[in-house]
Amino acid sequence: MSAGLLAFSRAARNLFGERAGFWATLALALNGALISTARLAVYDGLAWAGMAVSFWALTELARHDHRKWLLLAVIAYVLGTLAKYPTGVMLLPLLGILTITRPKKASLDLLLFGYLGALTAVMVLLPWREQVAIYFQWRLTNTPSFGVTLPMIAFTALSFSLPALILAPIGWWLSRGNRLLGAVLLLSLFLWPAYHILRHDPVSITKHLTFGYLFAYPLVGVALAALWGARKGEFRALRRTVTLLLVLALAALGISQALRADRGWPDLRTPARYLLEHVRPGEKLLINESWPFIAYLYAQGRILSPWDVYDTYRVTHGELEEDLCEVDWFVDVRGSFSWPPEILQQIEACGTFRPVFSSTSRVVNIGSDLRYVEYPVETVIWSGQ
Questions:
Q1: Cβ(155)–Cβ(205) under 8 Å?
Q2: At residue 145, does pLDDT exceed 70?
Q3: What is the mean pLDDT of residues 147-158?
Q4: Residue 379 and residue 374: Cα distance in Å, rounded?
Q5: How far apart, in whole angstroms, are the C-alpha atoms of residue 108 and residue 113?
Q6: What's the Cα-to-Cα distance from 208 to each of 119, 192, 194, 256, 358, rounded to whole Å?
Q7: What is the three-class DSSP state of 353?
Q8: Does the pLDDT value for residue 160 go beyond 90?
Q9: pTM for this predicted structure
Q10: Alpha carbon distances (Å) from 124 to 92, 133, 265, 306
């Protein structure tokens, strides 16, 4: 994410100048969604860096008129998309930027971008075509709502995007000679909120929002640079005081949102430590909130493969070949990925499982009344041995 932020800074500078680039980078670095995503061990960071480098390369192409920058833009875009397939939708603002900044050469540029992008993607995806097909089939049929309503999705998008929604339109209005380009950047802000609202999909919304911010925040920089003003001018001290207070407000909002996001998942380190001490290689585990446990168990060699852990999706879709009663461990994290009642009933009916450990973690998430609430999540470990 730091590498992507550096590329973003150069892109914003190329488009709107040094001062706007500085303020845009500072404002984006203080965004709560960006801070939260940077702190997570997820592939969104690699995808974000790829899109940022592609964005920067296109601005360099506009400045220097050398298609080595187009090649870099294509490679970075493809790598970003391969890191996380849905982020390929950011092709829309990238092609918009390419078309507007190079109107006389856009036709050939677009042709080369499409050809090189398709060639690179096919080279990489051809050996993985079965895996990719399985992924898209799974993604289209697996959209858990976790009880999140459309107002909750819209409120989340609004709360994290509020600074950009206020300042980016001002930046667009002030970029008088670049309003068409500014419109492309501004509209990018709405791509992911529209996606999540139309699909009623709350999964990864804060991470996805950062891809829209990547293109919209140069306009935020334009607005802040204009408010800061030149070295001399009327109300210079007042304008600079207001700018600094606004940046402090952005910092307070972003840090508070990031800290709250940190508590959006239960702290599973204690139950994971228990399993590290008792699980032996070759044993099978049923864990509904599986990924934090897999990270510990596989890294420490307590499981032979990440696939030794079966989550709710894999069990309900018939991927567990053994009988439920033959599994060695059953973990019930009573949070987002709840076990279906029929599986809990089967585990209890086995007569071989006994609870051996439990812990409780307090998490914070948005409630149906659009207020953030704190509630306990209990984790119970059952041994089938």
A1: no
A2: no
A3: 90
A4: 16
A5: 8
A6: 26, 6, 11, 19, 34
A7: coil
A8: yes
A9: 0.86
A10: 22, 14, 34, 24
